[in-house]
Design goal:
With 119 residues, the chain is mostly helical. It has one domain (23-116). The chain has helices spanning 24-47, 54-64, 66-78, 85-101, 104-116. The longest helix has 24 residues, at 24-47. It is elongated, with a radius of gyration of 16 Å. The relative contact order is 0.16.
Length: 119
């Protein structure tokens, strides 16, 4: 996956969101990259040996999708800004990928079940 993390502003959580630098063509590559990152984080959490703790399990699960959640929130905001209709199309495609395209939610649930079985 070819994503330049230095030039795609959706790949970094910032307090001051650089709306002026975000382009519609950033959406799909960012979502793909962030889904892969979240999956890697999930796999790392599942491999942590017992005992399970709040920090190594719940806290890690909570932060697992934070970058993806942030990026999708920014894109969702942009779809309500006049003149950003291309962002609307990109968000629709990205949302489909997040919800259905890679079955991330199913794998997350399976991994959580595996984690619960290791206590």
């Amino acid at each position: 996956m070819s994503v330049n993390t230095e030039t795609n502003p959706l790949l970094e959580i910032n307090f001051q969101i650089p709306f002026d630098r975000i382009r519609a063509e950033h959406v799909e590559p960012a979502v793909n990259y962030l889904l892969t990152d979240a999956q890697s984080r999930l796999e790392a959490i599942a491999k942590v040996p017992p005992p399970r703790t709040f920090d190594n399990t719940m806290h890690a699960l909570d932060g697992m999708t934070e970058p993806l959640d942030f990026a999708m929130s920014v894109v969702k905001h942009l779809e309500n800004v006049p003149g950003t209709s291309r962002h609307v199309q990109c968000r629709a495609a990205a949302s489909q990928r997040v919800l259905f395209g890679n079955s991330f939610e199913r794998r997350t649930l399976e991994s959580r079940a595996a984690v619960r079985g290791q206590h």
